[in-house]
Structures are given as structure tokens and as C-alpha cells.
Design a protein that fits this description.
- It comes from Actinomadura decatromicini.
- It holds the Pfam family DAO.
- InterPro entries: FAD-dep_OxRdtase (IPR006076), FAD/NAD-bd_sf (IPR036188).
- One of its GO terms (molecular function) is oxidoreductase activity.
- By secondary structure, the protein is of the alpha+beta class.
- The protein folds into 2 domains: 240 residues, FAD/NAD(P)-binding domain; 146 residues, 2-Layer Sandwich (D-Amino Acid Oxidase, Chain A, domain 2).
- The protein has 9 helices and 20 strands.
- The protein has an 8-stranded mixed β-sheet with strand order 6-7-5-15-16-17-14-18, sandwiched between helices. Strands 9-2-1-13-20-19 form a 6-stranded mixed β-sheet.
- Helix 1 packs parallel to helix 6 and helix 1 packs parallel to helix 9.
- It is globular, with a radius of gyration of 21 Å.
- The protein starts with 20 loop residues before the first strand and ends in a 22-residue tail after the last helix.
Amino acid sequence: MARADGAGLSAAGTGCQGGGMRILIVGAGIVGAALADRLTRPDRDVTIVEELWPGGGTSGTSYAWLNANDPHDPVYYRFRTEALRTWRDLAAGLGDPDWYRPTGNTVWATGGAKAELADRVRRLTALGYAAEQIDAERLRAIEPHVQAPDDAFIAHFPDEGHIHGEPAARGLVRRAHDAGAEVVTGHRAVRLTLDGGRVTGVRLDDGRDVPADLTVCAAGRHSPALLGTAGLDLPLVDPAAPGSAAPCLVATTTATDSVLNGLVHAPGLSARATGNGGLVLEAVELDAGIDESVSPERVQEVGEELLSRARAVIPGLDADVAEMRRCVRPLPIDGYPLIGPQAPGLYTAVTHSGITLAPHLARLIDREIDGDPAPELAPYRPDRPLTNTGG
């Protein structure tokens, strides 16, 4: 059995139930955790089921960047900027916890990529997003340990940041539990239970049935398998397919004196601070072939390359790779969230950008459960024609 979540919650489930509408949330990554936090109230009986522990899957291993740094789709851009505001409000209500890090993001480009970054800054600024070109002196003030090439185009996005995914999910689930939610960890939902065409809850891997008036699938990459038990499809990129973009490798380092103040995106490297004095390192182009059969030797090679790139960006970096983590992201085929009812008694909430979107999605889904359709979610229904691109 998996460990408890660290919040004093037993694997068998604890909490009090009040006799209202029964809502079952499957998955306690950041989306499920935000839903549990938002949906728990006296007139509802909320249960959250998680195979591992809150934040123990993708949310706890991802780079966890909070941003709306893409201006190409105006509707989705506005959706993401609203999500950043929701995060600020949520964090303020929690007393600005240590796991919420609105630290800013510094990006630079060289060669032919400079024009693209300059255009992005221009377009985002025109939309009212906090984005600016900075020089090397300003870079040193923001990130004293970082060095960019002399000819780089450097941009700064002060309103962006990151979260520490596992403690964030754990904190949100803890607050839901304290408000009366039932929390079941260490057990997997193996199938949806049905009465005619209506979803009535889930069956767990120990044979127990968890009944619900409304089941919310927030199981991330595992959602297609669960939904498939009721004959339902979800258009996610298959992480097991050759060349799949869903899996990635993320390195964490030992503690270092060369810690970063915010996020840094350099050519070939994304880096940010951990919560314990180290760094998180990632590079998209190193993720090719990182499937379930990836060899330990390949994982070690990627770690060594990430550390080498980090030492080029952060001269004098005095750290080593402490851990390599394989992260499998839920990637909708067209890049956009998959949010909404899929059958009577069933609501799906799955997205690639869960770190950025989770509290905002929870707020809108809460409205819909109360019978108030959210027009902001209309473009992102699971049964939409897959004609969108990007995201």
C-alpha cells in the first residue's frame, strides 16, 4: 500500500460526511486537489480517491510553470491569464504558502530564435501581459548566478512563477479534508460503476464500490483507461506510442549556492529552484525515446547532459544530480483542456496545463455543478471536434 499523504490522512480514508450531494473525485494531482478544495462544503459529501498520495504522480514531478506565455490563441490566452489571477487569490487566502512561488521568469534566445522571442514579447505586451526586454545588467540583478551570451535577446516576465506540485496538492487536499471531505489514498479506481447508462461511482482495486451522484474524472494520464471501462474515449496522446511527446525526464540537483530566484529558460534548458535549495532541470529535446522501457543508462545520460547544460548557464554551479524523475503528462491531442460532462453522472477534468489552470477550472466546474453553465469552458468540452491546434 502506498504511504499516506503526509497530511494525517489514512490510506483507508477519513473524514465526516453530511448527507448532501455525493461527489467523487478520482485523482489527487493538482487538478483533483483543487477540485476537492473548491467543491467541499456542508451541502455536499465529497470523496477523493488517489492511487498514490496527493501530488504523488505527474503534478509532483513536473516542471510546474505558472504562465500565460503564448499569445497565439486569444481565447485560450485570456483563459490562462484568468487562471493566474485565480492562483493569486487562492494563495492569498491560504496565507501565501511556501509552495506557491510567483518568482518571475527570465528567457533568452540566440541566433534565429531572437526574432521569435522579440515578437512574443511585443504581442504579449500589446495584450497587457507583463513582458519586457532586459539587458545583461538587469539580468544580473534578477539572477546573479546566471550568464547569457552577449548577443542574446533577453526577456523577463515578472508575473509568472511556479509551484511545488506535491506540497501544493497535499495542502489543498488537507484543507478539503479539514472541511469534511473523505480522502482515500493507496487505492486505485479500476472501473466506473454503471446503472443503465448512468455512472454511479467507481470500484476500487480492493473490490469496494464508492458510490456517487457525480463522479469527476481528474485522473490525468490514467483517465482514458478508467473512462474506457464505460465505453468512453478521451483524446489524449498515447504515452506508450513510439515517439510520444507525453513522457519526459526531469532532474533535481543537490543543494547549491548558485540557487535561482525565479524560472530561467535558456536555449536547451529550463531551470528553477526546488524547495530545498537545489534545482529542477528539464530540456524538451532530450525527451525523445523516454518511454516505459527507457534504460537506466539513458536516464543517466540525460541527467549528465542536463547538469552540463546547467553548468554552462550557471557558471560555478556546485551541484550534482540527486534524482531523475520520469514524468508522464496528460496531453490532449489538440493541446487544449478536456472539461465537461461525458455521460450522466460523469464529469471529466483533464488537461496538460493543470498546474496553471487547476484552481480556475475548479471554480468554473463548481459553477457548473450548481447548474450554472460556464461559457468559458465551452471551447474545451471532451466531445468537441478536434479541429483546434496549439494550446
